[in-house]
Design goal:
10 helices, three-stranded parallel sheet, 17 strands, binds zinc ion, about 375 residues, about 15% strand, six-stranded parallel sheet
């Protein structure tokens, strides 16, 4: 029996984590492009719309009409994509809580980046507000629309005494914030997903620490966003390019592209910035294979293929007839769509891969078509 891979093309749709960036450039334009690519191959993608940003724009729009124009366009783009069959689900960056607008497109964000650092009532209030906003908007098009999946900002979902319980109470069927093997120690985010017990399959989470697999069925499921060991050659190419750029000799160094994305400086772990940090990282890459999040914006075509080899291997190992797999992407980080376009075409022609939306995965979990495991 061959395992059917049900692949979800998921995108965290937002401006930069510190609130900078023009939504028209980082979100609206690339979303339209991506939707076109999906449509051409007859696939449907899913966008995790970051709603805290949109709510901040809305709450300041009376005093600043330019914000209203952008917030209106945000809704238009979301509704247009949804009308064409693509899914929209909830993503929250709590750092937007209480944001103040400084004019000229500049925001000052004061909130903590991790939802884990907020009291339960505040977590619930943010989730309720985000869900209500999306459901009100999209039920105008499809009265049956519901927020069924959650992706937490900066991946922060565990450990937490309350987050999983609140999500399940609010009707979320699954969370996809776990990225097994990843660790962040930055000024904004501290997160340790190295101890995650299930890197690939849907599972019932320990309700107080979703990194762990529960012994019994729970009211919510976690599906890890796919991660894979980064191929060494890609790491070497990426580091080489970075070092070359730092030395200012980029044009004299001809190396094939590996990491294409424009990942923000805020995601550099402590001790990994600067030329020394880059060299250290390179060395570490030889010693331990680094975990890579399956984020298409950060990959070239060769790496995407490598990722699929790994997905197929894990799917075969599961012995299950059907397995949902969550990919990641960030429209704000894409500066060249050609590799994604090539990869999407590959997937559309793969007999062992079906593409699904997040809503379809939620239906599959509810009906038992997709199995979640317990410990
Ligand atoms: Zn995000």
């Amino acid at each position: 029996m061959q395992t059917m891979i049900h692949l979800a093309f998921v995108d965290d749709w937002e401006v930069r984590g510190n609130g900078t960036g023009d939504p028209r450039v980082l979100q609206f334009e690339p979303m339209r492009k991506l939707v076109k690519i999906f449509n051409k191959q007859g696939l449907r993608g899913s966008f995790n719309a970051e709603v805290m940003q949109q709510l901040a724009y809305r709450s300041h729009q009376e005093r600043f009409p330019e914000l209203k124009a952008i917030a209106d366009e945000w809704e238009q783009v979301v509704m247009d994509s949804f009308r064409q069959g693509h899914d929209i689900q909830l993503h929250l960056h709590p750092q937007w809580l209480g944001a103040s607008y400084q004019g000229d497109g500049n925001w000052k964000l004061g909130g903590d980046w991790s939802i884990l650092n907020y009291p339960p009532q505040q977590i619930r209030a943010m989730l309720v507000a985000g869900r209500q906003y999306l459901e009100t908007l999209l039920r105008r098009i499809d009265p049956a629309y519901a927020c069924v999946s959650f992706r937490s900002g900066s991946w922060c979902a565990a450990p937490s005494d309350s987050l999983m319980s609140i999500l399940s109470e609010l009707g979320f069927v699954f969370d996809m914030s776990i990225v097994a093997g990843v660790r962040y120690d930055t000024p904004q985010v501290k997160l340790d997903y190295v101890p995650c017990q299930e890197p690939f399959l849907p599972y019932y989470p320990d309700m107080k620490d979703a990194r762990r697999v529960s012994r019994s069925a729970e009211p919510i499921v976690c599906i890890p966003t796919n991660t894979f060991p980064r191929p060494r050659i890609a790491l070497v190419r990426a580091a080489f390019r970075k070092i070359a750029r730092k030395l200012g000799k980029r044009s004299t160094v001809a190396m094939p592209a590996a990491s294409r994305g424009r990942i923000g400086a805020e995601w550099i772990n402590k001790g990994e910035s600067g030329a020394v940090g880059t060299a250290k990282k390179l060395l570490k890459g030889y010693l331990v294979r680094r975990t890579e999040i399956a984020d298409l914006a950060q990959m070239d075509y060769a790496m995407m293929r490598q990722m699929m080899v790994n997905i197929r291997r894990q799917a075969a190992k599961s012995g299950l007839p059907n397995v949902p797999v969550i990919l990641e992407n960030h429209t704000k980080d894409i500066h060249d769509f050609s590799d994604i376009e090539r990869f999407v075409a590959d997937v559309a022609h793969s007999p062992d891969v079906k593409t699904v939306t997040l809503t379809e995965i939620a239906h599959g979990l509810r009906s038992g078509y997709f199995k979640a495991r317990a410990a």
